[in-house]
């Protein structure tokens, strides 16, 4: 049995972040698919909720010395991986720079992604009766509002990746968000720094192997 | 001039988190009020956006050796404070426990708070024409969905605070969320662990002095 097990769904962009982080660290892991749509969402089934009461993906299970450590929330998982498997690091060394990385990643993880999550889009349709085109506008509104700020924030890296020549925590959050934005037809031309950073990452094996379409549960 | 400046709004629960963290560390700071409602929101004015393109509160400015480090996102600020001013710590020492704290804090910061943020409630009203009672239901739905999971997650602390006898990162996120939930009349009786933890914290000076009502800009 693998030491690390990731409960994941191919299109979950939070799970995608963790797959990138695991690959960047060269960590082997077993993947268990949790289908976010089938049967009203397997993440809401008792078997999964017992492991992760948050009812969201991803969940990492670290099997250490016969004990199981279960960790919810993609950013908590990435911080854990960086603490337990520190080489290669995913965060810069200097506190001020670590803070810039976290602030950009958190802007994506708090202020863009949760608003456009499947469960929220579903609530908009079913509970509030929001029509499809208004829902698309909602989606694009939060993407653009977030990416505009991230574009400005990336200036601090001066055309480099967040770890100089290497990607890390920041790119693990940014690339899945760009993937989502493209999926929902957001025009990204106004974000040259984001596009350049993402293009560099998408060419790397760690990112290629984390991409939604190549996951075992992709349909 | 103070070494630390916090751009804050008395009722911003993200700013409230950072005020708690600063107080727990015994750090002096200067507070600058950014009014989230007046004139369409001072956080959207060019003067503030230039400092923080995310256009959200809080923002911490650390004046170190004549240089200014500007940090957005409450959780990035708390991580920074814990790295730069490590005593007293806000996170447990053990990685698995640090991960549990972060996972609970992130569930609040990602999956509850941003959905109920002022800018989102405003979008629901003005762009989607959502009526007040449906908006209240939306608010309470995400609060209950989040707090239910947090209540279960707190079991790991076995009736203690996240640092044993001391509060830290977790309580800095939980207490403002409970404050918000009460403000919007959410019934919290189903969450005894949350209520007990919050009650212990609210009796402490660090939390009392961070409370919205005692801030200089409170009205």
TrEMBL record, chains A, B:
Keyword Ubl conjugation in record: no
Keywords: Isomerase
GO cellular component annotations of the record: cytoplasm
Record domain GST N-terminal: where: 2-89
Any single biological process term in GO: glutathione metabolic process
TM helices/strands, residue ranges: none
Residue ranges occupied by any GST C-terminal domain in the UniProt entry: 94-219
Domain of life where this protein originates: Bacteria
Keyword Isomerase: yes
PROSITE patterns hit by this protein: GST_CTER, GST_NTER
Molecular function per GO: glutathione transferase activity; maleylacetoacetate isomerase activity
Family membership: Belongs to the GST superfamily. Zeta family.
Protein name per UniProt: Maleylacetoacetate isomerase
Organism (species): Pseudomonas segetis
């Amino acid at each position: 049995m693998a030491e690390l097990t990731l409960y994941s769904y191919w299109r979950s962009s939070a799970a995608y972040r963790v797959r990138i982080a695991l690959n960047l660290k060269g960590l082997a892991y077993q993947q268990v698919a949790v289908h976010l749509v089938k049967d009203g969402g397997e993440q809401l089934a008792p078997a999964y909720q017992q492991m992760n009461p948050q009812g969201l993906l991803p969940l990492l299970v670290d099997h250490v010395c016969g004990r199981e450590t279960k960790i919810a929330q993609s950013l908590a998982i990435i911080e854990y991986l960086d603490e337990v498997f520190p080489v290669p690091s995913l965060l810069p060394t200097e506190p001020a720079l670590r803070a810039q990385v976290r602030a950009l990643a958190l802007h994506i993880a708090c202020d863009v992604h949760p608003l456009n999550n499947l469960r929220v889009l579903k609530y908009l349709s079913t509970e509030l009766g929001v029509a499809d085109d208004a829902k698309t506008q909602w989606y694009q509104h939060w993407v653009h509002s977030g990416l505009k700020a991230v574009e400005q924030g990336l200036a601090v890296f001066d055309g480099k990746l967040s770890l100089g020549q290497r990607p890390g925590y920041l790119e693990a959050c940014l690339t899945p968000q760009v993937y989502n934005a493209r999926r929902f037809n957001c025009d990204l031309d106004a974000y040259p720094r984001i596009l350049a950073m993402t293009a560099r990452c998408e060419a790397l094996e760690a990112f290629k192997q984390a991409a939604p379409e190549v996951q075992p549960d992709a349909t």
